[in-house]
Amino acid sequence: MANYTAADIKALREKTAAGMMDVKKALDEADGDMAKAEELLRVKGLKGVTKREGRTASNGLVTARAGAGEGTLVEVLCETDFVAKGERFGALADQVLTQAVATKASDADALLGSTLTDGKSVKELLDEANATIGEKIEVKRVARLEGEHVVSYLHKTSPDLPAQIGVLVSTTGGDEQTARDVAMHIAAFSPSVLTREEVAAETVENERRLAEATAKEEGKPEAALPKIVEGRVNGYFKENVLLEQPFAKEPKKTVAKVLTEAGADATGFVRFRVGG
């Protein structure tokens, strides 16, 4: 009988995040040698990486770091919420974020191809985690912002899970608290652009067509259509443009008004939601 204990099984599971039966089989095959068992788990897992490539990774977390005029936001995905809330996955995500910050990565491909201090690429790091954990793990998105001030905000949608929503905001002037309040607003109200000028012309035109068709269907007077259409298009802007949204903490003021009163201006933002 292999020479290992229940404590050995527990320790190897915590180290590798592998399943109970896989750990026991590896320890049996390694005759209780922990290092050899870990290696067997890695080899076995790596063989299954290709098979897992077609799976859907829709759980995971977002993580961010900001300061000194720059910020980085990373989305790391896995298959199940069980893995997402595990310490091993959280540590992996933190390692990936640290690498993204160090290399100033602004997209997933650049981050995956970058080399860690031990000589492995981030892609290889993920493949190894994929192997030991037994789930598809991927870096889905990476964003980077620079500005006079950059703040980050992470939001948990469930107390049992890591952050599912992450925001970066860059501002000029004002104070950090105002910028953080705006970041929290973005997390809650999910604007798509900073200013209305960033909305594609075809999108605005489509909104006008829909507004006009809806007004006609409702039987609105022909003479009133231009004003009605303009009002509904402005309503679209108020819903999607950050600076035109009613501010979460003071709905009677727009985000732009709050920033102006604080002597600040927003210059950019990024918002990720896991799986979004």
From TrEMBL:
Name the record gives this protein: Elongation factor Ts
InterPro entries xrefs: EF-Ts_dimer_sf, Transl_elong_EFTs/EF1B, Transl_elong_EFTs/EF1B_dimer, UBA-like_sf
Gene Ontology MF, one: translation elongation factor activity
Gene transcribed to yield this protein: tsf
Role, per record: Associates with the EF-Tu.GDP complex and induces the exchange of GDP to GTP. It remains bound to the aminoacyl-tRNA.EF-Tu.GTP complex up to the GTP hydrolysis stage on the ribosome.
Listed Gene3D superfamilies: 1.10.286.20, DNA helicase RuvA subunit, C-terminal domain (1.10.8.10), Elongation factor Ts, dimerisation domain (3.30.479.20)
Key words of the record: Cytoplasm, Elongation factor, Protein biosynthesis
Region (Involved in Mg(2+) ion dislocation from EF-Tu): 80-83
Source lineage: Bacteria, Bacillati, Actinomycetota, Actinomycetes, Micrococcales
CDD domains recorded: UBA_EF-Ts
Domain Translation elongation factor EFTs/EF1B dimerisation, chain residue ranges per copy: 71-275
